[in-house]
Write a structure and sequence with these properties.
- With about 200 residues, this protein is an alpha+beta fold.
- Helices cover about 40% and strands about 15% of the residues.
- It has four helices and five strands, in the order ααααβββββ.
- It has a five-stranded mixed beta barrel with strand order 1-2-3-5-4.
- Helix 1 packs antiparallel against helix 3 and helix 3 crosses helix 4.
- The radius of gyration is 29 Å and the shape is rod-shaped.
């Protein structure tokens, strides 16, 4: 254990200690009280230049960090043993840390990319805006007349709620608050709807 805590190996020992701490935090559920470390601020586009050379984006950030700490610590210690066997002594702290980073970077990138191929990813339920056409909704706030849209609540095919601006399809119609409507066409950000319980006349 003395070799692991020697000054020239301290960076690798700290990395492995942090890895153990991360595992404990995740296993015990303490991370639930610390916020979401995999939030939008930590997300990177997997096709970006940074992601391509680091492996970021292939895995959740906490998982990527765990792989990096493990790779840095284990590769660094292994290289120190190799250097010591060839030259009789390991590198000093600064050179050892730099060597560990340079060696661990490509190894970690390869490992995280391979792991990312089998890691389960959340499936998106996002739908295109036009997919809401033909769906029923409820006028939630306001009264919709031609030229004056009201806000409606619409549920997509996945059951997700969307808030859209709605005007009546017919010039003379009025859609009051609480009215159930059917979205029949869209122009820009505005949907046009007819009452579900009213006559359906789609011709202008």
């Amino acid at each position: 254990m003395g070799g692991l805590l020697a000054p020239e190996n301290l960076a690798f020992a700290v990395a492995l200690a942090l890895l153990v701490l991360l595992v404990i935090v995740q296993v015990t559920g303490i991370s639930d009280f610390l916020g979401d470390a995999d939030g939008h601020d930590a997300d990177l586009d997997a096709g970006s230049a940074l992601a391509s050379v680091t492996g970021l984006g292939a895995l959740p950030f906490i998982v990527w960090l765990s792989f990096f700490l493990a790779t840095f610590g284990l590769v660094g210690l292994s290289l120190q043993e190799l250097v010591a066997s060839f030259f009789g002594a390991p590198f000093g702290p600064g050179a050892a840390t730099a060597m560990g980073l340079v060696a661990a970077w490509p190894v970690n990138t390869v490992v995280t990319r391979l792991a990312g191929r089998v890691w389960p990813h959340d499936e998106t339920t996002a739908v295109p805006v036009d997919a809401l056409l033909g769906r029923k909704g409820i006028i939630q706030i306001g009264r919709a007349t031609r030229g004056s849209a009201a806000r409606a609540q619409v549920r997509d095919v996945h059951g997700q709620l969307h808030l859209v601006m709605v005007e009546p399809h017919e010039d003379s119609a009025m859609l009051g608050e609480g009215c159930e409507v059917l979205l029949v066409h869209r122009e820009g950000e505005t949907f046009y709807a007819v009452p579900v319980d009213g006559p359906l006349r789609l011709a202008d």
